[in-house]
Amino acid sequence: MKILVYGTGGVGGYFGIRLAQCGHEVTFIARGKHLEAIKSHGLQLKSVDGDYHLNEVCATDNPEKLKPDFDVIILGVKSWQVRYVAKLIKPLVQTKTTIIPLQNGVAHIDDLTEILGGKNVLGGFCRLYAKIEAPGIINHFGFPPELIFGELNHTDSERVQKIKQTFEKALFKSTVSTSIKSDLWKKFIFINTVSALGGYTGYSIGKMYELKDSREMFASTIKEMLAIAMAQNIDLPKDFDKTMMTFISNQPYDSTASTQRDILEGRPSELENFNGYIVKQGEKFGIETPVNAFIYNSLLPQELVARGIK
């Protein structure tokens, strides 16, 4: 299978390396010093499940140089980059091409279907703790990797089963969801709850859960998001707020989310697509979102500086 991984960060880098490791023809889109290192020394994976060095790597920073013959395009960029990237890959999307976005959040699905149409786009996300340790080096440091994807109309199609069978040769779990929109929201509720608050406090997930005040902010954030999900007719289990709090409590104590790390390091983050999205949806539906609004507005000045907007 011919696969394009657009965005060779922790997520795209990990899944791309594992797919190449089992014999697929994988092309990577990367940039800067990371791309230079990949071209010079290959792409190295350090993983709790076993290391691997991909010596011969097809990598570029210019999708215009690529031929439009990919079976699957995996999007490993940040959610706020999706609209821009969707326009760049549009010439590469053929009838046979399936787009699997792995962004956190939910707003980017509308961006993709608006620009690329609905036929080629799946819903998707992953469970993985990984990051760029240094240029050319991906570090997978926690959580059994899983890639989840499904049709946006919630059918169990032939193409998703074919992709699943293909991906099962790689060293990660591949799961087809027939309720992908609900599953995206489940992941979104988790990642939005811990990300920006982690960036605001500077604490790990375990430390924030341990402290009463930040734990209560977790619970309030979840309730606000559940109200928005209900307004959008998203089907979520009863008492999902309790389930989510238990899930957060079981995370590795020192774990942090990628958006939290971006905020703490002064990089552009997914703040707008996470807490900002919930705040704006609250305004749309007339739902109060005070905790999300506090986090969003507290971090917005830093976010604008990180994006070069003054």
TrEMBL record:
InterPro entries: 6-PGluconate_DH-like_C_sf, 6PGD_dom2, ApbA, KPA_reductase, KPR-Related, KPR_N, NAD(P)-bd_dom_sf. This is 2-dehydropantoate 2-reductase. It catalyses: (R)-pantoate + NADP(+) = 2-dehydropantoate + NADPH + H(+). It comes from Urechidicola vernalis. The lineage of its organism: Bacteria, Pseudomonadati, Bacteroidota, Flavobacteriia, Flavobacteriales. Its EC number is 1.1.1.169. Residues 180-299 form the Ketopantoate reductase C-terminal domain. It is an enzyme of class 1 (oxidoreductase). Residues 3-153 form the Ketopantoate reductase N-terminal domain. It holds the Pfam family ApbA_C. Keywords: NADP, Oxidoreductase, Pantothenate biosynthesis.
